[in-house]
Known about the structure:
Layout: H1 2-7, H2 10-22, H3 42-61, H4 71-81, H5 85-112, H6 121-144, H7 148-163, H8 180-210, H9 229-253, H10 278-285, H11 288-302, H12 304-307, H13 319-341
Amino acid sequence: MAAVAARAGPGRRILDALDERLGLRALSYPVPEHANKLAYSLGGLSLVSFLLLLVTGILLAQFYEPMPETAHASVRRLITDVTLGGYLRGFHYWAAMAMVVLVGLHLLRVFVSGAFKRPREGNWIVGVVLAGMTALFFFSGTVLKWDQEALEALEHNIEIGELLGRLGFWFSPRFGGVPLLHRLYTAHIAILPALFFLIVGVHLLLVKRHGMAPSPFRHGPEPEPTEPFSRHLARLGGFALILVGLLTALAVLAPPGHGPAPVEGIEVTKPPWPLLWLYPIENWVGVSGILWATLAIFVALLIVPFLDRGPERHPLRRLAVVVPAALVVLAVLGLIVYAALTPVTAHIAG
């Protein structure tokens, strides 16, 4: 053994030393071969996106002033006066978009492959909670840029808070004597990240506890997982490098816009595309439609393991649940396209 240790490279010796003291190998587990494909790396890439957002967010926070009087100007200074500030903001913006897409695709892959079934029902619910937190991250980040689009988004949520009565106290502009923008900033940079890390930890521990779900598309019995966890991480790292390259290109070639300073009492913008599906619903139902449509989506996601309880995992043999889910996805995509083509409509009274 001593001879083997002597032949090991410095990197391996460092890892062995860290494992001896921290027990890093306890985090690893055998991985089935199919789990090394891109579709099974979407969850890992979602976490990579979050870590990229965390790093760039820490840097952006050095220049941001979270008060209504100064927030817009501080973002403008970041873009125009800070070296690489526009690139940093663009990278953060596109990483947020990537995380929304990756989390959505990850949920879709888990649903289609039946990976939420016994004994993994609890981890599906944890994943839905993480998806909800991703939506909260996205909404709060949209507001923090504090342009016209941001103010209108916040005004809509203040009105939803009023519909909730006492349950919507946090969205009251007067709660605690602290501006709502500042409270959203605190939630965005401190409360949500701390909770997200905690829940991701539970999510990963449950993955280790139950292992990767078997593939529903394999013919014959599922072989025992034999791929080392280190190889799975290496392939995830390769996908992550591609993701970083794409985000860098988008940050340079398609920097996000920053609208004019917000003006109260008018409505001249539409929400960003991940929230755009709610726009036609608001046109038809009113502001309350945002609340009920959002709740309906997340309640439907939460009860999936209780509706589809059979052992069958192949999607073509679960059409009773797969077809309605596909129709919902198509409806959401159709609403996004429809909203993008319709003119701006005022919903909030001036």
